[in-house]
Amino acid sequence: MSYRSDPSLKEKNEEANQESLSANFMSWFFKSIAWGVGGLFALSMFNLLDRADAEQKSNVDLPTGPINNHRWMGWENPVLDEKDGWNDWNKLLNPNNLPVWYDNFNKIPSTKPKHHWVMVIDTRKCVGCQACVVACKSENNVPLGVFRTVVQVMETGSMESSPNGMVVTDDGNYEPNVKKFMLPRLCNHCDEPPCVEACPVKATFKRQDGIVLVDYEKCIGCGTCIQACPYNMRFFNPVTKTADKCTLCVHRVDAGLEPACVTSCVGRARIFGDLNDPKSEVSRLISQYPTARLKMSQGTEPQVFYIDLNGNLEGSTSMDEVYMEYTYTIGFNTTAYRKLGGKVELPKIEERKNPFKEFEK
């Protein structure tokens, strides 16, 4: 008997298929419930673990007081403190217990210091990439809005009228007779630092090796030293509530390393070394090339030497003012950006002499 000629066989086959579908559905249904219950259990366990971890972190006693932005606290943050020496300012600022001065700086040479650290900046090599600025902020945990070093990017010159000029306006054609100039700026670590003498609580001092530093635990944030600096190279740290400045990466120097801005300079425009060593690179450069220092008339004896600074700024243009090109070249004592295209006075350049004539003999 064939399948087509037996209706009862067809009905039995359909019933069997329905029973199979029903069994498969029930199996899938119960498996789904089991997976769902297991997932809820696992999720609840993860939540319990996260809650326990959060409670453990909340038990850490975060410091209170003026420092309340924990993202910028560095060594002050107990969560980030690795007990690696950053929480001991005496070891950080002067680990070798060098003599320090608060005045009478002219007596330092008579103590015959082993080193006298200075920086030479070759403006011919600076391209204004700002790598040194970024490296400084990263190395020293400098907050937003303030800088320990900047590179001022400026344009000198003017647009001159020319019949075949590439710049076409309604008033005629013009040819740009301009050039860029980069001026890296940082604390000059002066031999006669007025900022040190101005501090009423002796929070800022000059080490025997020439580096000028601020003891942030003593500083009361009065701003007297900031006003005393003729170079505008100190600023008020909005996190620590103290005066702040370039330290020449003193923690690296004491460890035998160069400052972060020097190691990151792609054109090797920044050179750091010992002025007491006549064979050092800084001594060789100062002896070989005419150098300039900023605002020598102030009597501060700055220890940052610039190569080819006069030639770039006192050439055919001989401008007393230059135009700012980028907004990141802001002042150190303010977070207010200058209007793009505004003017800024250029620091006066008053020295061409060669202080290393004795080494040429």
Record keyword descriptors for this entry.
disordered C terminus; five-stranded antiparallel sheet; alpha+beta; elongated; single chain; four-stranded mixed sheet; 14 strands; 361 residues; 9 helices
Q: Would you kindly provide a written description of the structure presented here, covering whatever features stand out?
A:
With 361 residues, the chain is an alpha+beta fold. The chain has nine helices and 14 strands. It is 27% helix and 19% strand. The protein starts with 6 loop residues before the first helix and ends in a 16-residue tail after the last strand. The strands form four sheets. A five-stranded antiparallel sheet has the order 4-5-3-13-14, with no helix packed on it. Strand 6 (204-207) and strand 7 form a beta hairpin.
